[in-house]
Amino acid sequence: MKEDAIEAIQKLLSTPKKIVIIPHRSPDGDAMGSTLGLYHFLKKLNHDAVVIAPNEFPDFLAWLPASETVLIYEKDKENTSQIIFDADIIFTLDFNALHRTGEMEQVLTKVTAPFIMMDHHQKPDDYAMYQFSDTAYGSTCEMLYHFINYLGFKEKIDKTIATCIYTGIVTDSGSFRFPSTTSTTHRVVANLIDLGIENGAIHNNLFDDSSYNRLQLLGQALQNMKILLDKKTSYITLSQKELDQNSYVKGDTEGIVNYGLSIKGVVFAAIFIEHREENIIKISFRSQGDFDVNQFARTHFNGGGHINAAGGKSYLSLKDTVAKFEDILAKTTIN
């Protein structure tokens, strides 16, 4: 992060401010971990901080410290909009384009408060006065750890903040197996463990505390999996009917796409999930090695992300979306 930006932010935070912290729509572990970690840090500096999420976050993240204080824009647009307009500073974490907040974008484009962006995705928009944007990091939570250190407040990181930061690191690193996991990542995690985080319990809360319905949905997804070994590809589909039959709740499909990537010989995996209420097919892409799913998602499915992990969307039917995917795949070289 640039020295002049650090000094400017230090000055901004030197006196109590009204601060709004915003994750992207449908926030994941990194988005919620980083926003709540920053929330606890700013509270320690006596700021009036609040996290406002565009929509509900998954139940498996509801154990995070102070998650009950998070306001949901879609549930109370009038009140949350006013809080945003009244803010002195707005932090946006784990995204770099305002359209990633959905309907909240209409509010954010009208505010006068300075934005501070913290994010590790490619091609950031230029809405923020100050940016900590670096694709070399595997998670925004790891960036938050260094951000606090850059500001000279490393001693403020306690077990609560460390718990939030660890959550984002472990989820966005695929439990430390993705290529973006570095030796520095492990050193940061070692420091968090020294601060007393219960890493085993965190992992259990995130990955092992599944409901019966979630496991049934996983079973359905695995039954639906298609494998195209000549293209080193696997993909999964889940229809709205299948979601309903298994009492789907937000977060139940988290991580399912990775099962396809675990198959020997597969380097590209996708999952297509039908959401009729939004009239959209939500897509997640994962890859191993050099196949760039960020570029694939940007080019073909209105999305983006990282080289080995990206998302997209389609306004076609589930059947037509899959047909489009297979057609593109037939013309794509995957080494």
Short description:
The chain has 335 residues and is of the alpha/beta class. The chain contains 13 helices and twelve strands. It folds into two domains: 204 residues, inorganic pyrophosphatase (n-terminal core), CATH 3.90.1640.10; 119 residues, Diaminopimelate Epimerase, Chain A, domain 1 (Roll), CATH 3.10.310.30.
**Structural class designation:** alpha/beta
Give the CATH architecture of the largest domain. Alpha-Beta Complex
Quaternary: single chain
What is the first-to-last residue Cα distance? 35 Å
Name the overall outline. globular
How large is the radius of gyration?
A: 20 Å
Q: Which CATH first-tier class of the largest domain would you pick? A: Alpha Beta
pLDDT < 50 runs, ≥5 residues: none
Question: Into how many domains do the coordinates divide?
Answer: 2
Count of DSSP H/I helices? 13
Helicity, in percent?
25-40%
CATH topology of the largest domain: the name is inorganic pyrophosphatase (n-terminal core)
Largest sheet: 6 strands, parallel
- How many strands in all? 12
Following the backbone from N to C, one meets helices and strands in this order, namely: HEHEEHEHEEHHHHHEEHHEEHEEH
Question: What is the topological layout?
Answer:
Elements: H1 3-12, E1 18-22, H2 29-44, E2 48-53, E3 71-72, H3 77-86, E4 89-93, H4 105-108, E5 115-119, E6 130-133, H5 140-150, H6 159-172, H7 183-194, H8 199-208, H9 212-224, E7 226-228, E8 233-238, H10 240-245, H11 257-261, E9 268-275, E10 280-287, H12 293-300, E11 304-305, E12 309-314, H13 318-330
Parallel strand pairs: 1-2, 1-4, 2-3, 4-5, 5-6, 8-9
Antiparallel strand pairs: 7-8, 9-10, 10-12, 11-12
